[in-house]
């Protein structure tokens, strides 16, 4: 698996993604999207269909995730200042710490689209093929991160920066991500063994799960020895979709939708 040069692509041809979304209210589906098989993964009002990892994946978190005006925002219990972790005022810290949220359902072959909005030094991620009882609860991750966060400088060759396959494969998407406070659109395609990461209509990386090159990347990552139950890390056939609470960041989401193949 070699790093790929980002390939520009018109959002209008993405079968119900960016162009139709611009014409619809947030967290709704157009007729064209419905006909193409898209379904809302978040209804814009509740956490129905989602559960908290801290609850044992049995209930939605009681705190840490704010829903307001059709926007889902994860709240921090710590903060980043000048590249270091600092405490928040107790009353503010108490609002955060809800932990990751994950879908109730598992998915195999799918296309996921969502909008995310970063704040300064923010860190989150879209994790996929998540199973709480496998691989120490870790899985592949589409990195969501502002370069001011300390994690951006870790890893290798930028593989912990925005849109990367976290700790495995860099996206080099810095020229694609929009400024802080603006909405970005992430697109994640998983079909068979083939996976693609897109950001704002640009394909920034692709790889084959289970391939020799993928296993080599896993072997050079923090996950090299994290496979459990005799399996290989990153090669589960099905799993949940998870949105990360990094505990030190404020990140917002909307328009979370999925279609299965």
Keywords for this entry:
mainly beta; 16 strands; Jelly Rolls; five-stranded antiparallel β-sheet; 4 helices; 261 residues; 8% helix; nine-stranded antiparallel β-sheet
Low-confidence stretches: 1-22
Profile the largest sheet: 9 strands, antiparallel
Radius of gyration: 17 Å
Q: Total number of β-strand segments? A: 16
Going by CATH, the homologous superfamily of the domain at 7-48 and 106-227 and 251-260 would be: Exo-inulinase, domain 1
End-to-end separation in angstroms reads 24 Å
Helix/strand-derived category reads: mainly beta
Strand content: 25-35%
CATH structural architecture of the domain at 7-48 and 106-227 and 251-260: Sandwich
Q: State the share of residues found in helices, binned by percent.
A: under 10%
Overall average pLDDT? 91
Order of helices and strands: EHHEEEEEEHEEEEEEEHEE
Number of helices: 4
The CATH topology of the domain at 7-48 and 106-227 and 251-260: Jelly Rolls
Descriptive report:
The chain has 261 residues and is mostly beta strands. It has a domain at 7-48 and 106-227 and 251-260: Jelly Rolls. Helix content is 8%, strand content 33%. The strands form three sheets. Strands 1, 2, 4, 5, 9, 12, 13, 14 and 16 form a nine-stranded antiparallel sheet that branches. The chain has a five-stranded antiparallel sheet with strand order 3-8-15-10-11, with no helix packed on it. The chain has a two-stranded antiparallel sheet with strand order 6-7. Mean pLDDT is 91; it is low at 1-22.
